[in-house]
Amino acid sequence: MKVGFQNKNIKNGICGDINADCCFKIMPHELAEICGGRYVTYPASADAEAPVFGICTDSREAADGIVFAALRGERTDGHRYIKNATEQGCRCFLCEYIPDENTPDIYNGCSFIQVPDTVKALAALAGYFRDKQSVDAKTVGITGSVGKTTTKELVSCVLSERFKTHKTAGNFNSDIGMPLVIMECPDDAEVSIVEMGMGNVGDISRLSGIAKPDVAIITTIGTSHIEALGSRENICKAKLEITDGLKSGGTLVLNGDEPLLDCYNNTDLRILRVSCDQNKECDISAENIRSYYDHTEFELSDRTDRGAPKHLDNLKINLPGKHNVYAALFAYAVASSVFGMSGDEIRCGIEKFRNTGYRQNIKEINGVGIVEDCYNASPESMKASLTTLSEMGKTSGRRTVAVLGDMLELGAYSAECHRAVGQIIAEIVPEYICLFGNEVRFIAEGAIKSGYPEGRIFMFSADEDGVKRCAEKTAGNTSVGDIILFKASRGMRAEKISDAVCTLLEAKDRTDV
Predict the structure, then answer these.
(1) Is a pLDDT exceeding 70 seen at residue 46?
(2) Could you tell me how far CA 32 lies from the centroid of its own chain?
(3) 3-state secondary structure 7-34
(4) For every residue of 277-345, which 3-state class applies, written as one string?
(5) Burial 304-324 (b: 16+ CB within 10 A, else e)
(6) Separation in Å, CA 53 to CA 26, 39, 176, 364
(7) Which of 7, 41, 107, 194 has its CA 20 to 30 A from that of 487?
(8) Tens digits of residue pLDDT in 267-303
């Protein structure tokens, strides 16, 4: 991951083609002061240093003028690649120790910023660059078990109708990724939108402390990370850590249909709640939701003024499924109640939104609908995707097929959660299902127990041969007009099967001709 230090000429998103002419420059010894590091140069003279204009965490992206931050992880140690980075022209390093410190010849012309913890140093640097932003600039922080990225993209799409916005690119939402996003935020950005992920208690608190958001959104409380946290209640507490860095008087937008969030109160904050279940106690709600093959329509009621509600009729989001309407409601709440945008501006931004990557990406291959929802999976997102698949089939009159892989990181809850997915399968009754992995046997068990025909379930391993056979079975059983959903946790790489099925369908069409 490589970013250029903020400058108004850098475009939105992670900047992969940075150069010295378009970036803010800073001296290495200044970076050392910012993060409290020991500054070392070879030879031992500060005169040898040159300004830097970017930072990276991958030695393959290291270059002259770019700081290489050496990170220590479970699988590798970035310090092992410092010498490789020097061979690519890199001359400045953020590190916890200096490899081969007693043989300095290999580091002629190099400088080192030595710190106790490289990740914490990244956080300190991010805080410095955040504070360089205009005092009028606002930060929107987003967390939640499901829907963070879709919400981030919709909020950005809407706010971009009036403001210069900067957002987390991809899923750079960790204690490594988010600081890098903040560092490359242009200094003329009016709004910065950052996504905050977690693995355990305290993660979001640290990220919120770095970002210091003016507005925070919690999308859902699910069962992701339940293996580490033990209960949904503990997950809720961890998500609410986003308020730790939220500025006093800031706005917290919550999912009003989540009981664990319904009782939360904080007199130091302005709290708004949104609902898709006609909860009249919520400030903003969606009504008359209609889900179609490739989009969803709904009406919106805004009761934030506690007077006569405001309405937006016939809103359209270019994604199928009720669960995606929440993202539109969050975007409306932030744009209207915090940034004062008009209904017409918000409508325009919502309707411009297009999904990207492997998140509910819909395409047609020779008359077969392909729904790639391969980015990740939890019990909640599985249910949402399968319910949406059923709605797509009903509104279009087409057969549906589900290709599902394991949901990971559920620990002792795994069997129970996979069986619950099987119950949903029995309720929506797809034409057939292909399952790959180890834990999916519990999906089959739950489906059969709930009445789904065993003969319409096909099981495969997740190894190379299993992926190949799963793709062949799926493509072989598919007819023109079918809609196929591909869904699994990120580690299962469901897109491998999706890509193979698409290739087979294209070849099948040529053979039929």
Answers:
(1) no
(2) 31
(3) CCCCCCCCCCCCCHHHCCCECHHHHHHH
(4) CCCCCCCEEEEEEEECCCCEEEEEEECCCCCCCEEEEEEEECCCCCHHHHHHHHHHHHHHHHCCCCHHH
(5) eeeeeeeebeebbbebbbbbb
(6) 6, 18, 18, 44
(7) 194
(8) 999 999 999 987 878 999 999 999 888 899 999 999 9
Q: Which of 147, 339, 154, 178 lies closest to 258, judged by CA?
A: 147
The mean per-residue pLDDT over the stretch 238-267 comes to 94
Taking the C-alpha atoms of residue 123 and residue 131, their distance in angstroms, rounded to an integer, is: 12
> Which residues, at least 6 apart from 366, have a Cβ–Cβ distance to it below 8 Å?
480, 505, 506, 508, 509
What gap in Å lies between CA 82 and CA 69, rounded to an integer?
A: 9
- pLDDT tens readout for residues 60-69: 999 999 999 9
21-28's contacts with Cβ under 8 Å and 24+ in sequence apart are: 23/53, 23/54, 24/53, 24/187, 25/51, 25/52, 25/53, 26/51, 26/52, 26/53, 27/51, 27/52, 28/52, 28/67, 28/92, 28/111, 28/113
Amino acid letter, 136: D
**DSSP designation for 140:** E
Higher pLDDT, 139 or 222: 139
Map residue 210 onto helix, strand or coil.
Answer: helix
Q: pTM for the complete prediction? A: 0.86
The phi, psi pair for 243, rounded to 5°, reads -75, -10
Chain centroid offset of residue 54 CA: 23
Q: Is 409 helix (H, G, I), strand (E, B) or coil?
A: coil
Rounded Cα distance, 286 and 214, in Å? 25
